[in-house]
Amino acid sequence: MKIYEALKWASSLLEEAQRDQNAGELLLRHHANMSRTKLLADLRSDLDESVLQAFQKDVKEHISGVPVQHLTGYEEFYGRTFLVNKEVLIPRPETEELIVGILERAAALFSEKPVSAADIGTGSGAIAITLMLEKKNWKVSAVDIAESSLKVAEENAEKLGATVNFMHGDLLEPLKEAGTTVNIIVSNPPYIPDEEVDTLSPTVKDHEPRRALAGGRDGLDFYRRLAKDIPFVLAEGPFLIGFEIGAGQGEAVKAIMEQAFPGKTVEVVFDINGKDRFVYTTSR
């Protein structure tokens, strides 16, 4: 079978199953070890039989609900490749915008001074590792409640050459216990209301850890807990707090932060798709 025929076959099955048709190209590039440019240039080339069989197997696996990233074992994030598995949330494109927002605000607050940052609920380590690699003079810590998630994050840090202080524990407790203070707190915590988790796509609810999804009755439990404890781990001087939130939660999370940090600047920022997606709190 030729490459274009394999892609057409996959596209038809994926469309019928109401899956993302782009998954076919991603899986074929993975199994053929081809860049997108090479794949498009070789559309009329024959596929090796072993590659074709592996590709067809994974297309059917994805149709059954397995995320593409679990089939390939990785996801691209901020120009880098991160290992992922069932123990971590798959990094989303929206979270790249959180990185941009943190870096822009940090530049205004701290200029090029070395600062310390902590990523709470690090999962794959995508946020913490990216911040460390983008700002080599920062000191970055990362916390997760699951040792299995930290194992993935540590592997990513080693593979990408990032020095991150990984800490095991519940939200800010490891920082408090260690007496660690930071200038920047960033988090993409679980924010989906508990009763809505089971309504998510099977690729999410059946394959990504529930602990990274469910945020309590209204989805805001973790923001309340973080807001309560963050003052105990902030260093003296300017500070920056950045949260990713669920669409529609902007005003509620803003109110939580305004109550916890009276007189400070709290802003709701919309993502590229026009949805309220981030809340930033700064000391000025």
From TrEMBL:
Its EC number is 2.1.1.297. S-adenosyl-L-methionine binds at residues 121-125, 144, 188. Pfam families: MTS (PF05175), PrmC_N (PF17827). Gene3D superfamilies: DNA helicase RuvA subunit, C-terminal domain (1.10.8.10), Vaccinia Virus protein VP39 (3.40.50.150). This is Release factor glutamine methyltransferase. It catalyses: L-glutaminyl-[peptide chain release factor] + S-adenosyl-L-methionine = N(5)-methyl-L-glutaminyl-[peptide chain release factor] + S-adenosyl-L-homocysteine + H(+). GO terms for biological process: methylation. Keywords: Methyltransferase, S-adenosyl-L-methionine, Transferase. The keyword Methyltransferase applies. It comes from the Bacteria. Residues 5-73 form the Release factor glutamine methyltransferase N-terminal domain. Residues 116-196 form the Methyltransferase small domain.
